[in-house]
Structures are given as structure tokens and as C-alpha cells.
Structure prediction request, 296 residues.
Amino acid sequence: MDFNQKISRKSFLRTGALALSIPLLSRIPVMAKAPSKIGLQLYTLRDALSKDLEGTLKQVAKIGYKEVETFGYSDGKFFGKTPKEFKALLSGLGLNAVSGHYGAGIAAPDKRGTLSNDWKRAVDDSAELGQKYMMCAYLTPDERKSIEDYKKYAVLFNKSGEVCKAAGIQFGYHNHDFEFQKLDGELPYDIITKDTDASLVKLELDLYWAVRAGLDPVELFKQHPGRFPLWHVKDMEKSADKAFAEVGTGSIDFAKIFAARKTAGMTHFFVEQDVCKKPPLESIAISYANLTKWKV
Prediction:
């Protein structure tokens, strides 16, 4: 994927049309002054970023987002740019990369910059970018075949957390729904929470996946108070397939969840929508508008 390729005329026109559509979204009630810490997980815009990195980030900033969470770090580069280059790009747009998603690397042993391969370099690059958090983003099916696998990850997570701590960064784990499904008679999430050092391994709760798995996020906060500094804020359609939805248009009770932010220890949250039925830039604008309306 070449992040430096020139944008095509078709892509330029499409991006321009999306930019023109954003003012229309201002009809949604919003605060006079937007909150300063509404973040975006950039994975939502993965296709647009691969075609026009700077132009897409400009649109993110124009909507009002101030913080972003990265993905796809590989061999010293963020979206094809060095940490210094990417930080300069973000800073010029008023954006700050607070957090980043990283792979465990077990299923891709040759990939550098994962928890299991050249992690120190990834941590150093993250520190140069200015990230405060580094999250293990996902475990592939091949990486989580048994509960014993999770017990090994607990050890790896603690070690990864120690490397992060030495660089002034907090390590953590981002969930999906499979961690809440029993494996060999045990819940993987219980292993992650109980077998890791709570000071070295924090948790980034993906609200959608937790709710989809039948969990109450507030109860999780009460069980592990102060351990959830980061959240992924995404909504769930009021439909049989429970598809992803723009924040504020679905079924998740965000008022109840945000009311428990102190119990969780939440310091930053990121809008994410894995799949968008609308153009992704329009979807993230709707989510942003609703979050400002709620004065989060």
C-alpha cells in the first residue's frame, strides 16, 4: 500500500464532495465550543488514508478532531512516514497521536515492530511520535487457539509493558468480542486481567464489542476500577445483525457509560467505525457532532 501516491482526479473530486457535505452535518445540534479531546482511530479511514494521507487528515482536523490513534506501524514507519515526518504532518494540522495499535506478531514472525519482534524499536518510534499509549490491537485466530495461548500472552504483555514504561509510555490491550467467549472452560479476558500487572497492562475497552458480547461496560469498570484509560466509542445498529453505526444513532447507552468515566479511569477515547455504510468521512462527522452535543 503506497501512502505517497498522488491522488487521482476521481479521488480528488470524491474528497471534495465529502468536504462540501460536512457543513450540512452542522444541522445536528452541537455545542458552541467543541470538546478538546475527541479522538479518532484512523483505521476507520484506512482506504482514504492509503490514497491521500495529508488530504484525509486535513478533513479529520476540519471536522474538529484533535487526537488520533494510529494503526499499521511497520518497520519504523507510520503510514509510510518516519515518526518525525508524521508528527510534523499531524502537528501542522493541530492533531496529536495519543495512542497507537500494534500487533502481537506471533502469526507474522518476520514483521518487525511487533510485541514479539523488535518491540524496543517500535516503542522508541512511538515515543518520538509523542504517543502516550501503545495498545496490542488484535490477536488473530491462529494466535489464540487455546487458553494456554492467553497465559503466554499475559507474560508477553507484562514484558512489553516494562519496555513501554521505561520510555514513559503506557502499554495496554484492546478487546474484540472473542475474549469474552469461553475457551477451554475459561474466559480469555479473565486471564488478561488477572495474570497481568495492572500497572503495566491497562485496558482499552471497545464499547461496541463488549456490548455485543453481552457485557455491561459499567460493570467491567467496577470490576477493574481505574484500568480503562482508553475507550473505543462506536455504536450498534438497532437491527438483527447489530451492524456498526455512527455514534448516537444506535442502541448503546453512552450516557450511562460516560457517567462512569471516573470509575473506569478514562483519559482519552477514540471514535471508531470498522465498517461504514455512509462515506467514512461523513460517518465520523456525524459521530463527532453527536459527541459534542452530549458535552462529553
About this structure: Residues 147-166 form the longest helix (20 residues). The chain has one domain: 33-293. Confidence is low (pLDDT under 50) at residues 1-35.
